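It would be a great kindness if you could assist me with a short task in structural biology. A protein sequence and the C-alpha cells that stand for its backbone fold form the material at issue. I should value your view on which stretches of the chain appear to form regular backbone elements. The record follows directly beneath this note.
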Amino acid sequence: MKYRNLEILWLGHAGFLIKSDINVYIDPFKLNRDDEKADLVLITHGHYDHCSVEDVKKIIKHGTKIIGPIDILSQTRQIEDGIDFDIASPGKTLEFKGIKIHCIESYNSDKRFHPKNEGWVGYVVDFKGTKIYHSGDSDLIPEMRNVKCDVALLPVGGKFTMNSNEAALAAGIIKPDLAIPMHWGSIVGSESDAKNFVSNCKLKGINAVVLEKFS
C-alpha cells in the first residue's frame, strides 16, 4: 500500500519491504520473489522465521547493509563476504543513506520465548520524517509508551507474541496514524486474528488495515 512517500509491502508473517528511494526489508521470510534487491535489511532477532539466511541471500546485492542484534552475526556472516553489518541493541540509533534506525526493546513479559536479557529489538525507521515502527516479537511492554511513529506494525498471532486484543491495546498506547497487523498466516495466527485487531483498533479511533501478501 502507498503511505505518504512510501510503499509498504507485507511479505507474509513478520516480513515487510518498505520502498522509498531505497529498499528496506525487515525480517524477510519465505519470500516468493527476489527481483526487488535490498539496500538495507533489518533483523529483529535470531529465530529462524525472522533471521532467514536463505531469504536474505535472495535479496542482497553489492552494498547491502544488514543490521541486527549481535547474536545473528554468526548466521549472517555465512551469507557473503563483504556484506556490511551493524550491530543493533536497545537504545541505539544508526543511520543509513539518510534514514535513521532507532532500536527499541522487544521481549516477552509473560512468556519464555523472547527474554528481555537477549537484547533483541524492534525498530523505528525514520524515512526522512515518516516513521515506521516494527515491534519485533514482543508482548505489550512499558517501553511502547515511548514509541513515536506514523505507522505501527504489530504482531497479533499470540503464543509467541501479543495476541490481537493485546496488540490493539498497544496501538491505543502508541497512537499511530496507521496500524498494520503482522505475525499471522504462517506458523501462528490467522486472518481472523488480523481482522479482530483491525476492528479493535477502529473502536479506539485508530486507522488500521490488513495488507494482502505481496507476491
Notes: The chain has four helices and 13 strands. The mean pLDDT is 94.
